[in-house]
Each structure stands twice: as structure tokens, then as C-alpha cells.
């Protein structure tokens, strides 16, 4: 088969590799029908994730069809259409018993396209297949389901639920990339009074409006804090989410929230940020961090299948497997290309 292989910082190729096979009785092999690229894959290609060894097949988000199952797999049979989650779960360790699958101690967690070969391939081996896949309901497209592999549960769990968004809240979301946009979509499930999207790229702020932001702020030309003050009588936002992953945007998020409010960090950080305890010790803030656990994926599948959540605008570009290198090129130049999520499949 062919797969997208990482060959060290800056080096990748779509090339012939051996087909995956069942290695453990809890494995399944899945034919990949649709796959996407994550911002995290770009971090890997920059060399920011040294655990990823050269030779690794990248990717941790896919929708596909089961082609083989190990002897211990109970819930899947060949022919089933499944979502391959970004998080694998052994199902029996201390954290899995608690629904904290992202922290799995039994060999799961974020392993696909990280510690083992991933989904950017024609076929993928999925460990702990019963706990690491979800069946695709009839009537849900591959593209809609694909958005539930990572970005929707990540923004919903780590942003909206950790941020304790409630009806009537003023919610500030710093960053309008795919994760920030997915946070807008899922925050709306709780009927906040205002969602304020903050970014420095006008193209992304336009997208934020189409995803449901009530107010957009270009932080390059406007003060987000004064906009939030205007909405809240000077108090600050009830919840501020950080969806970029830089020290400055984290500090901005902390600065936007009211006393007693929630700061939910979603961004992946590579450098220390300053926490101004001298200002906030007195403010009763709750600051949360997190890797997605994907405990909410069944809920999100129900919302998509029931047409309560429309993710269709997220996919801006489609490619065939043979065009995988082009897909990376377009996704990595999102500023120029306007790419949000790309979908790669056998045919367009
Ligand atoms: Zn991802
Ligand atoms: Zn586990």
C-alpha cells in the first residue's frame, strides 16, 4: 500500500510501504476511506515532537471500513464503517476506567501517527479496536464524521466543557483556526449570549462569523479587552478559550476573563507563558489544560447524525491519495490558501 511517511524534520513522502496486519488479538485493520491533516502533523514535520521517529506513517484522524479483526475484537466485523479516533484506549487501566482515555497507561492515548504508524495511508492497524473506534451512523458522510476524530471532541471537551460555558455567557475564543472554529460551533450548543472570536487574520475572522461568532475582533487593530468590557459592563468574559498555543495568546485569554471566570487552554504550547499571579491571585479564576479524552465522541456523533451540529463548512479542500503531498502544501500555507481542514480520499 501507499502511505505518508515522515523522514525527519521537513521531510515527508507519499510512498510504497508494507501493508499493516493484525499484531495483537485486540487489533483491527481498517481501509482508510477519508483522512485529514492536523496542525499537530505540521508540528511533527517541524521537528517539534521528537518522539516521532523517522519512518513513521503520520496521521491520527480517519474514517474507514474494517477489513480484518483480531480474535479478541468483539464489537467490529469486516465491512463496518468506523471513525478511527485520535485517541486509542486500552479500556482497562486506571485512567480508561475513569473515561480519561487520553491519559491511558495501558498502551493507548495519542499513539496513532505518533508512537505507532498512523492513518495517512491506504490501510491502518488500529490497536484496542473495540475502544478506539466508533461506528458511523447511516446517513452521515465520511467528511462530517472525520471532523469528530479530533477537532470537535478536542474543542468541546478541552474548551467548552472545561471552560464551563453556560447559557447567557459571554465567551471569548482567542484563535480562529480549525480548533477555534470548532470551539465556536460547540459553544453554541449552550446558548451563550455572545461569542467573541479574536484573531489577527481577517480571512479567519470571516470564517468565524460563518461558524457562529457574534462579534469578531482583529487583535492587530482593535483591543479585545475593550470589546469584552463593552459587553460585560467592564467585568470581563465568563469564559475565555486559548486556541492558538503561544505565550502571548495564553496571557491574552487570562486577561479577558472576569473574576470567577474560566480560562480553558486548548492550544498546544512549545514555550513557557507567564502567569500573572500578582494580578489574578485575588480573582477566583479557574484555569484548565487538557489533552482530549474523546469521552464526548458518542454525544457529538448523535448531534451530527441528528443534524444539530453542522461541520460541513470545515472541509475547504479535497484531494486524492495521489495528491497527498499537495494536500500538505495547501494545508501548511493556510494563511494564503484559506484552508481549514483538507479531506484526502481514494477519489474526490
Ligand atoms: Zn490532531
Ligand atoms: Zn487505558
Automatic annotation (TrEMBL):
Could you tell me which InterPro entries the record lists for this protein? ADH-like_C (IPR013149), ADH-like_N (IPR013154), ADH_Zn_CS (IPR002328), ER (IPR020843), GroES-like_sf (IPR011032), NAD(P)-bd_dom_sf (IPR036291)
Which Gene Ontology molecular function entries are recorded, alphabetically? Answer: oxidoreductase activity; zinc ion binding
Name the cofactor(s) required for activity, per the record. Zn(2+)
The record's SMART domains line, in alphabetical order, gives: PKS_ER
UniProt key word Metal-binding: yes
Q: Which UniProt keywords apply?
A: Metal-binding, Oxidoreductase, Zinc
Q: Where is the Enoyl reductase (ER) domain?
A: 12-344
Question: What Pfam family is a match, any one?
Answer: ADH_N
Write out the similarity annotation: Belongs to the zinc-containing alcohol dehydrogenase family.
> Under which name does UniProt file this protein?
Alcohol dehydrogenase
From which organism does this entry originate? Answer: Mycobacterium adipatum
Amino acid at each position: 500500500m501507499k502511505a505518508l511517511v515522515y523522514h525527519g524534520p521537513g521531510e515527508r513522502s507519499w510512498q510504497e510501504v508494507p501493508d499493516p496486519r493484525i499484531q495483537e488479538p485486540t487489533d483491527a485493520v481498517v481501509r482508510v476511506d477519508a483522512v485529514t491533516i492536523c496542525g499537530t502533523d505540521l508540528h511533527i514535520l517541524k521537528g517539534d515532537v521528537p518522539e516521532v521517529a523517522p519512518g513513521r506513517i503520520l496521521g491520527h484522524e480517519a474514517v474507514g471500513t474494517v477489513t480484518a479483526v483480531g480474535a479478541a475484537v468483539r464489537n467490529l466485523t469486516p465491512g463496518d464503517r468506523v471513525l478511527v479516533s485520535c485517541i486509542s484506549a486500552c479500556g482497562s487501566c486506571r485512567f480508561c476506567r475513569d473515561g480519561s482515555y487520553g491519559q491511558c497507561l495501558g498502551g493507548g492515548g495519542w499513539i496513532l501517527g505518533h508512537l505507532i504508524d498512523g492513518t495517512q495511508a491506504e490501510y491502518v492497524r488500529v490497536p484496542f479496536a473495540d475502544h478506539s473506534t466508533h461506528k458511523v451512523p447511516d446517513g452521515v458522510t465520511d467528511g462530517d464524521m472525520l471532523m469528530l476524530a479530533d477537532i470537535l471532541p478536542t474543542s468541546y471537551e478541552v474548551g467548552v466543557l472545561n471552560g464551563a460555558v453556560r447559557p447567557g455567557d459571554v465567551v471569548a475564543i482567542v484563535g480562529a483556526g480549525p480548533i477555534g472554529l470548532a470551539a465556536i460551533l460547540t459553544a453554541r450548543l449552550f446558548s451563550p449570549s455572545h461569542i467573541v472570536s479574536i484573531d489577527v487574520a481577517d480571512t479567519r475572522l470571516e470564517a468565524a462569523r460563518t461558524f457562529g461568532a457574534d462579534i469578531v475582533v482583529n487583535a492587530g487593530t482593535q483591543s479585545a479587552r475593550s470589546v469584552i468590557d463593552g459587553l460585560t459592563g467592564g467585568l470581563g468574559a465568563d469564559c475565555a478559550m486559548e486556541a492558538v498555543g503561544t505565550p502571548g495568546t495564553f496571557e491574552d485569554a487570562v486577561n479577558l476573563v472576569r473574576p470567577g471566570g474560566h480560562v480553558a487552554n486548548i492550544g498546544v504550547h512549545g514555550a513557557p507563558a507567564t502567569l500573572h499571579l500578582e494580578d489574578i491571585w485575588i480573582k477566583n479564576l479557574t484555569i484548565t489544560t487538557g489533552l482530549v479524552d474523546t469521552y464526548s465522541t458518542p454525544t457529538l456523533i448523535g448531534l451530527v447524525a441528528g443534524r444539530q451540529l453542522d461541520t460541513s463548512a470545515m472541509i475547504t479542500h479535497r484531494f486524492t491519495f495521489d495528491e497527498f503531498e499537495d494536500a500538505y502544501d495547501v494545508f501548511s500555507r493556510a494563511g494564503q490558501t484559506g484552508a481549514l481542514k483538507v479531506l484526502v480520499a481514494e477519489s474526490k
